[in-house]
């Protein structure tokens, strides 16, 4: 695959040579898979799996160290009334909150993910983006969620986007030779077409993304079953071609247990069980966790729960 | 002579201001007092009940936050809309309860008057149930009634319309949101009431009407952690006991079933049953070491 990234022209020929997406078929397939009925023990399993896949997120201008610590406490112990509840995969914060979060989750298996590269717009010079990334890694981030330069992508400067992802990937290296895992956010709501989402997915994976992620959660259209299915298909094809496994993270707009279970069905039916772990699939979400906890309480007690029995975040 | 076929009405639930069918897709046959088929009514499931609670919780904030005067106007509007569809309700009540036209009309009129009566209470109940309290300290102490939240109601089984109105109106007049399970045998007047509420400024979700078997649906409502009170008016003795046990789990308020003459003056008992008293202590007089000239 090295030759396709040799020049801007070669990369463009490759990305534009990818088969076009059939939008009606794609949305139809995503909708059909969403009708699967998941009940009783399968539901209990799926709820626990979904909780363990959450990147519990707070990305607000008003974030305080206190709020980040509260979020970490919730990630470590989502339901204080039931200690059997799995922990979330990670907490996801802005770079300046990484140190606070790392301190709060130290000694546990909960990771700290940090957005970087001038999130969410990505409108900054490359040195600034790299400094942003290095700062977060130095402060203890296990994972970096970068945004691509949508302007360059839409203008057709694919090699620029490619080089930028590669540079950020380099910036994820730590001095001891290990590296933070890199999630690449495409902001699918700004890419206009499904064809563009497919191209962006391949571009990201070619550049070395460990995860490809739908969106920032800051625009009108975020993760949908259809765009996530499309990215899962790209991941499947990339794995078949190169043997490299890449994770997927839908983010934004997933608020209910029902929605989350639909995404898990998509994963299982598209890329298979190998991806059904928080190593390879994540949900970027905040309010989803409360709904999962309420459903979990319903399954374990037989009574419907309510918002009075979960934390207000 | 006309060969016109009459258009039969599909009775549907009223949840969140919309008219869904039962999520389960089930219906059951509703007959008049002589056993003749009248219509099919939705046979609600526990999931319908859960959806209704979600809708009620969503509506509660705005409804309880509306001014009492505004709530009164909205309830009065319900009476206005009912008046316009009086004939339909008279026919439905006559069929459901096996009453003569005149007796059914008296029931419907009483039900409309009851809406007006409760509409008047919305901005007066605070003066009756609240007030300032004399306390032994430098405090201005005020109590005021506040709505308790989402209330689930088993509607009376025999009085299909007057009884129904008599249990719904006091709940929402106080600022609560309600999920009501209509009379199992005679749900049609209740389902038609949903159409009236939908066109009378009552925000969607404040009143949610389900039809079906109370014995099937209501245990999940009585145990529901997000329901704050239950009125068991139409539950039989055995069911009521089961529901009361389930409701005790999160200390819901419970109004137990008792024989009621629905045509008599209802008093404020049902209104007060779903109000909680909030008391505020406001300091007055000297506060600091040097005293305060407040």
Automatic annotation (TrEMBL), chain A:
What CDD domains does this protein map onto? DeoC (cd00959)
Its annotated pathway reads: Carbohydrate degradation; 2-deoxy-D-ribose 1-phosphate degradation; D-glyceraldehyde 3-phosphate and acetaldehyde from 2-deoxy-alpha-D-ribose 1-phosphate: step 2/2
User: What Gene Ontology cellular-component terms does the record carry?
Assistant: cytoplasm
UniProt keywords (A-Z) are:
Lyase, Schiff base
Q: Name one GO biological process term.
A: deoxyribonucleotide catabolic process
InterPro entries (UniProt xref):
Aldolase_TIM, DeoC, DeoC/FbaB/LacD_aldolase
Return the similarity comment.
Answer: Belongs to the DeoC/FbaB aldolase family. DeoC type 2 subfamily.
Name its species: Streptomyces mashuensis
Q: Which Pfam families match?
A: DeoC
> Which SMART domains did the record assign?
DeoC (SM01133)
Superkingdom of the organism of origin: Bacteria
Major enzyme class: lyase
Determine if Lyase is one of this entry's keywords: yes
Catalyzed chemical reaction(s): 2-deoxy-D-ribose 5-phosphate = D-glyceraldehyde 3-phosphate + acetaldehyde
Q: What is its EC number?
A: 4.1.2.4
* The UniProt record lists the keyword Heme: no
GO MF annotation: an example: deoxyribose-phosphate aldolase activity
Record-linked SUPFAM superfamilies:
Aldolase
Protein name per UniProt: Deoxyribose-phosphate aldolase
TrEMBL record, chain B:
Top-rank lineage group of the source organism: Bacteria
Question: Which part of the chain is the Aldehyde dehydrogenase domain?
Answer: 24-255
Q: What is the lineage of its organism?
A: Bacteria, Bacillati, Actinomycetota, Actinomycetes, Kitasatosporales
Cite the entry's keywords alphabetically.
Oxidoreductase
Please identify the protein, giving its name as recorded.
Answer: Aldehyde dehydrogenase
Organism of origin: Streptomyces mashuensis
Q: Name one GO molecular function term.
A: oxidoreductase activity
Q: One Pfam family, please name it.
A: Aldedh
